[in-house]
Amino acid sequence: MTKHQCLDHGEVAFCDGCLVDSLHHEISQLKAQLNNMEACCIQVKKEVEELQGKSRCIKSLVEQRNLAENMLRKISVAAQKKLPTFGAALRFNDEVKEILRGAND
C-alpha cells in the first residue's frame, strides 16, 4: 500500500475511514466494470444471433442456387435431345441461363 496524507492522522498507510472510503471507491469501480462487461456480453450475443440468421439465409440461398443449377442441367439435357444441332442446343442453353438469371435479379 502506498502512504497518503490523512488530515486527521498525518502520513499513514491508511486510516480506518480512508480505508473504507478507498474500498467503497474500488467496489464502485468494479461494479461499473462488471456492468460494462455485461453490456458488452449482451451486445456480442446480439451480434452472434444476427450472424447466425445471416448464415441461415446464405445457406438457404445456396440450396436454392443448387436446385436451380440442377433444373438447368435437366433443361439442357432435354434441349440437347430435342434440338437438331449441338450449336442450337448451346444457344438454347444460354437463353435459359439468361432467363433464370433475370428471374433471380
Task: Lay out the secondary structure.
Elements: E1 4-6, E2 10-12, H1 16-82, H2 86-104
Antiparallel strand pairs: 1-2
Strand content: 5-15%
- Trace the largest sheet across and list its strands: 1-2
> What overall geometry do the principal axes of the alpha carbons give?
rod-shaped
Radius of gyration: 35 Å
Give the number of domains. Answer: 1
String of helices and strands: EEHH
Q: In which range does the helix fraction lie?
A: over 70%
Q: What class would the helix/strand composition place it in?
A: mainly alpha
Note the main sheet.
2 strands, antiparallel
Count all strands and give the number: 2
Mean pLDDT equals: 81
Q: What is the overall number of helices?
A: 2
Please characterize this protein's 3D structure.
The protein has 105 residues and is mainly alpha-helical. It has one domain (4-104). 82% of the residues lie in helices and 6% in strands. The protein has 2 helices and 2 strands, in the order E-E-H-H. A two-stranded antiparallel sheet has the order 1-2. Strand 1 and strand 2 form a beta hairpin. The longest helix is centred in the middle third of the chain and has 67 residues, at 16-82. The chain starts with a strand and ends with a helix.
